[in-house]
Amino acid sequence: MRSRLLWNVFRGFWARQDAVPARRHISFGNLPLEELKLAENEITSCEKEIAQLKHQIILLLVPSEETDKNDLILEVTAGVGGQEAMLFPSEIFDMYQQYAAFKGWHFETLGYFPSDIGGLRHASASIAGSGAYKHMKFEGGVHRVQRVTMTVTVLPQPTETNPVINPKDLRIDTKRASGAGGQHVNTTDSAVRIVHLPTGIVSECQQERSQLKNKEMAMKKLRAKLQKIQIGTKGRSEKIRTYNFPQNWVTDHRINKSFHDLESFMQGEYLLDELVQSLKDCANYESLVEIISKKV
């Protein structure tokens, strides 16, 4: 079925490739103005279809990653730099929440730890929906604004049975949830902290008033972190993107693409989605080149 679909796409691609030179030849002939305009419109239409067919061919040739259909765990962590460093993660976290709404995904905050000087030290969320991890996986890395940086981590959310966790390997502590400055915001021991003893990985959640709900969320984060170890998910430590608020632009350094409307970009809608699509296309192209180089 896949081979037949690929063959049909190739046939359409070749047909339009042949059509463009023929129409260009016509456009230079002694034709009435109306027919020349019609030929030019047909050329433009064919070129758009060729670009779309190229995209389809790459998608059909490049296999999807096993985790592309998964939901995900998102984490944002402030870097060093005082209040300025704390404000940036808050804006980025809000941007991803708006992007999830734009894509029709379910966004659930798992943990939100504000700074006592304003802004955000660390936050995490679960994002579920069609193609969520496939889109968001390119957001992981170091994001920079002016002199400060922050880190975004994107982990594929495993199924309930993978990885298998032995309850004997866990230490589960509970305490009262606290807000900025350390003040208690709940009168019961609702906050949950889970330690995976064999690896030392820690997962905690205090977002909900229910201890049971916080434990469930903390386990989701723990499973995602353990799966990262098992499948060897590539961690990104390099700077991937710079945001310049005074000059109103944002640049992604991996594909050297810039947008000169940072305010619209931070709304988490069309511009962010356009960048994500460009990153997906670039990754697919690189994968295709790698596949071809192995065959040669």
From TrEMBL:
**SUPFAM superfamilies given for it?**
Release factor
Going by the entry's taxonomy, the superkingdom of the source organism is recorded as Eukaryota
> Transmembrane residues, as ranges?
none
Coiled-coil residues: 205-232
| Record GO terms (molecular function) | translation release factor activity
**What family is reported?**
Belongs to the prokaryotic/mitochondrial release factor family.
| This protein's name | Prokaryotic-type class I peptide chain release factors domain-containing protein
Provenance organism = Muntiacus reevesi
Q: What is the lineage of its organism?
A: Eukaryota, Metazoa, Chordata, Craniata, Vertebrata
